[in-house]
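Technical annex B. To support the medicinal chemistry partners, we prepared a structural model of the target in complex with tryptophanyl-5'AMP, based solely on the information shown next.
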Amino acid sequence: MASFKELVFSGVQPTGNLHLGNYLGAITKFVALQESHDCIYCVVDLHAITVPQDPKALTANIREVTAAFIACGIDPKKHIIFNQSQVPQHAELAWIFNCTARLGWLNRMTQFKEKAGKDRENASVGLYAYPALMAADILVYRATHVPVGEDQKQHLELSRDIAQKFNNDFVDSIAYHGFGDAFFPLPEPLIQGPATRVMSLRDGTKKMSKSDPSDNSRINLTDDADTVAQKIRRAKTDPEPLPSEEAGLEDRPEADNLVGIFAALSDIDKESVLRDFGGGQFSTFKAALVDLSVSKLGPIGSEMKRLQSDPASIDAILADGSARAEKLARRTMDSVKDILGFIRS
Ligand code: TYM
C-alpha cells in the first residue's frame, strides 16, 4: 500500500460536562502526541446536533471544549484546533462516504443502538449516519493516527472499512490520478494506557459519561476542589482492602476503576499503584486520590475559566485553526472529486 505522512486527528463533542474520562482517555493523549506528530484537534459541533441541542448552550460548549484543549496544554499555534462546522469539507466528504458505507455496516454500530434506544424510528438520520461523518473528519486530512477512548473503537474500524472500500472501488482512477494503489490511509486507533475506559464513580460496570443524570457519577473538568473531594469520597467501593497485585482487581470493577484513574493521573501502571496501596484501606487510597486529582485538575479548571471569560479570543483561535484546516481539507476534496469523475473549475 502507498505510504502516508503520519498525521494525528481526533475530535471531542461539545455536549457539555467534559469529564475525567474525556481527559484521561483522549485529551492527555492529544497533548502527548504533539511532541512527535503534527496534530489536528476538532470540536465536532456537527456531530453534536445529531441529538437536540440548545443553541446558546452549544455555543458555550464549543468554547468550553476549546478552552479545555488549550488549558490541558495543546498548542493552537504549532498544531490545529478548530470547530468542525467552519470547515465545510467535513460534511461534503461525509456525503460521499454515505455512498461508500453499507447499510449493513451501520446497522452493527452499538453506539447508535444505545443512543437511539427503544425509540429508534424517532432517531435522526444524522445519528445513524454519524460514523460516516466521523470517517470524513479523519480522512479529509488523510490522517493516519487517531487517539480515542475504547468506546470509539468500533467507529474507527468502520472508518478503516470506508477508506478501504473507497480505495478498492476507485482503484483505477486513483492510479490514473497519480496516487498509486491507495488514496486514503487506513487510520490507526491509538487506544492505550490504564484509562481507556473510565467508569462511573457510582457503578463500576457503566462508562463515565456526559449524559449520566447523576453528576456524582463523573468528575467534571470544571469541578472545584471540594466537589472533586466529595465525589471521590462518595465513590462506590467494596468492603475488601485493595489487592497487592493486578489480578486481584478482577471482578472488582469499582476498585479496578479507581486504581486505573490513579495510575493514569500519575502516569504509572496499575501494578505500581498497588505496590504502594495494596493491603490498605480504601479510605487511605481515596485520600491520596483526592490529593492527586485536585493537584492535576485544579489548574486545568481555573485556566479553562480564565480562557472562557474572553470568548472573543477563543473564537479567534477557532477561526485561525479553521482557516488552516480548510486549506488542507480543500486539497483532499479536490483530489476526491477528480477521482470520482466530477467536473470542477
Ligand atoms: P466524545 O465527545 O464522546 O468523547 C471524546 C473522547 O473521550 C473519550 N471518552 C472516554 N475515554 C475513556 N473513558 C471514558 N469514560 C470516556 N468517555 C469518552 C472518547 O473515546 C473520545 O475519544 N465520536 C467521537 C468524536 C469524534 C471523533 C471524530 C473522534 C467525531 N469525529 C474523529 C476521533 C476522530 C465522540 O463522540 O467522542
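Notes passed to the chemistry partners:
The pocket of tryptophanyl-5'AMP is lined by residues 9-13, 21-22, 25-26, 44, 47, 134, 137-138, 146, 148-149, 151-152, 155, 196-198, 207-208 (CB under 6 Å).
The chain has a mean pLDDT of 97.
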